[in-house]
Structure formats: C-alpha cells, structure tokens
Amino acid sequence: MSCLTAEDVREVVKLQKEDGRCHLIKLLKWEVFDEEKDLRPGILLDYLYNTIIFAAEKGFPWPSVALAVHFSEELLYETKGKTMQDAVGKLRDKCEQYQNKLNPNYLQHLVNHFLRTFFRHYRLYQFVLCEVRELDQTIQNLEVHVPQEVPPLKDGIDVELWKYQQHIAVLNEAEAQLRANMTVFRETWQLKSEQELEKFYEDLKIQDKEVIERTILEKIVKDAHDIQVTVTSEILQKEVETAFQILDLKLQKRIVPLPVSRSFLSSATKETKAGKISIKKK
Asked: Which of 137, 136, 121, 110 is closest to 43 using CA atoms?
C-alpha cells in the first residue's frame, strides 16, 4: 500500500494532469510502464489520481486528501475478486474504520464518489484486476522525414530558373565525378606499373659485376618498356574516353536554354506599355 503524505498529494494537485500522473508514479515507487502495452497500471494510476483530484476539489484538507487515497487503495484491493454485494459490504466496513479519521461530510462525499465511479464500472475494474491479458501486438517502426526548413520568401526564384539550376548542378556533379574517377584510375595504374617493374627487376637475378650480353640486355629493356607502354596506353585510352564524356557534358550545359524570369518578363511588359503610352502622348 502507498504511504502518501499531505505534502505528496499537494504536489500532485499543483501539477498539470500528465505531469501529476508521472509524479504520482514516482511517489508510489512504481516502475515506469508502457500504457499501450499494459493497461492495468495505467487504469490503477488513474483511479488513485482521480481520487486525489476529487478530494482536493471538494475542499478536503491535505491530510484528509491523503487519507482518501489510502481509503480508495484499500477498497480496491480488498474487493478484488468479490461480488458486487460483498464489495458494498466492504465499503460499509471501510466507512466504519475511517469514521474517526475523516470528517463525516468528507466521508459522505468520498462514498458518493466511489458509487458514481468505482461501483458504476465495478465489473470492468474486476476484469482489469483479476483477468490476465494476452498481449498480441504488432509494432511497426515508421521513419519520419522532417521537412526541410523553408528559406525566406525574399530568397525565392522562378520555378523554371530553379529547375535550370538543378539540371546544371547535376551536370557539374557528373563532370566532377568523371574527373575524380580519372584521377583514381591514373593513380591505380601507375601503382600497378611500379609494382610490375619492381617484380620484373627482382626476377632478373643479375649480379652487379656480371657482364650482360647485348641480346639479353635488349630483351630486358624491351620487357620493361612494354610494361610502361601497356600502363601508359591504358591511362591514355581512359583519358580520351573521359575527355569525350566531359565534352559531352559541357555541350549539354551549353544547349540547355536559360529560362527568362517571369519577373523580368512582367517588368519588360510594363516598360513596353509605358513606352506606347508616352508615344501616344507625344
């Protein structure tokens, strides 16, 4: 059973409903629970919270409000599994126990409160207290995309001009990606060339003072040259392909028509009309 004091119930009443319920959980020393998954503690919490609010609104002194909570909690658990007739008998017994603790007027208000709430929904409370619920829930995690912050209207541009800028930005990004890929390709093949030449020289196994025949020397030079030529050829071919792709992107940027702003058209139209008016006046 709870041991709420006059100061405890006073703190609960001073708070808004949700904050008051959360504070009451701490005062009752309950574990935090999920009301969507487990209805029982949430219903019992509302039962006690509503008793506190009712007693406070009826003008009970704070010690009497705390007694009202004790009364309601004892009544709830002592009637668990009882019939309606037995529960009414328990209410009568509780009134006798508290007749010297609570003012008769306050006690009468409290009895009327339980008759209108607890006993009106007695079977529901018994179902919550006595029946074991089988939890069958499907939880879906939905990703929420928060909209971007809207920029000031003064920074707005014509929609056609915005589309044009977006298209140019895509072409520029594609060009930058081609250049970056070319740099990676060049560095990769240069590293491959260095590794192959290093392995080639290690496999020769020629002594420092050894005299090399002309034909052997020519073959060594040719093989080393072939390694470098192969790498250079691959790099050059890739650079030519990339250059043509970049030129194609530049051409696309040139042929994309630059939209004329509507504000410019409206101002030009006004200037034209003003010019016609001035001509007529002359």
From this structure: 121
What whole-number distance in Å separates Cα of residue 66 and Cα of residue 73? 11
Instruction: Give the integer Cα–Cα distance in Å for 52 and 12.
Output: 8
pLDDT digits (tens, 9 = 90+) for 221-236: 777 777 778 888 888 8
Whole-number Å distance between alpha carbons of 12 and 29: 14
Q: If we measure between CA atoms, which residue out of 200, 172, 167, 189 comes closest to residue 237?
A: 189
Give pTM, 2 decimals: 0.48
CA distance 250 to 166: 15
C-alpha gyration radius of the chain: 44
